[in-house]
Amino acid sequence: MTVPKRLVLDTNLLVSGMLFRSSTSRQAIVKAHNEGLLLASEATLVELLQVFQRPKFDRAARPELREALVREYALRCQIVAVHSRIQACRDAKDNKFLELAVDGRADLILTGDQDLLVLSPFRGIPILTPMEYLAED
Fold first, then answer.
1. DSSP 81-133
2. How far is CA 111 from CA 59, 99, 117, in A?
3. Which residue, among 45, 41, 67, has the nearest Cα to 54 in the 3D structure?
4. Cα 81 off chain centre by
5. Is 26 helix (H, G, I), strand (E, B) or coil?
6. Cis? peptide before 121, omega within 30° of 0
7. Which residues lie closer than 8 Å to 100 by C-beta, 6 or more apart?
8. Considering the domain 5-132 in this protein, what is its CATH number?
9. Which residues contact 48 (CB under 8 A, 6 or more apart)?
């Protein structure tokens, strides 16, 4: 029996995957959920909820549905208490994903964000795009 990978998924990937059924992000989320253990922190969940509350997503899904998607995602995750303070990303808002990956002992970070991708591997943790992740195996 193989040990499931411990995975960090960034906010943009989650928003895209949750709202657009045929997206590459959705396929990556499904694969990650089926094959791995999803990691989240209070900071990453707060950001996900805040982004989902933006009016620009009203046409894609009702606010209640978006809130329900965040709750459902949180239930599927292992919530990690983050204690590390990392200042490695050129976009400081993305450091929360690195902190989660380090403290959660992640095997992989999934993102489409160039500010994170340029750091791969970060402390031995690969950072992949959804397409790269789907091509694995």
1. --------SSSGGGHHHHHHHHHTT-SEEE---HHHHTT-SBTTB-EE-HHHH
2. 24, 15, 7
3. 67
4. 16
5. helix
6. yes
7. 8, 39, 40, 41, 43, 44, 80, 82, 106
8. 3.40.50.1010
9. 11, 14, 15, 70, 73
pLDDT in tens, the chain (137 residues): 566 799 999 999 999 999 888 999 999 999 999 999 999 999 999 999 999 899 999 888 898 998 999 999 999 999 999 999 999 999 999 999 999 999 999 999 999 999 999 999 999 999 999 999 999 86
Residue type for position 54: R
Give the number of other Cβ atoms within 10 Å of residue 10's Cβ. Answer: 23
Amino acid sitting at position 57: F
Asked whether 108 and 126 are in contact (CB, 8 A), the reply is yes
Domain boundaries, the chain: 5-132
Structure tokens that stand for 76 in this block: 């599927």
Instruction: For strands 108-110 and 5-9, give the pairing.
Output: parallel
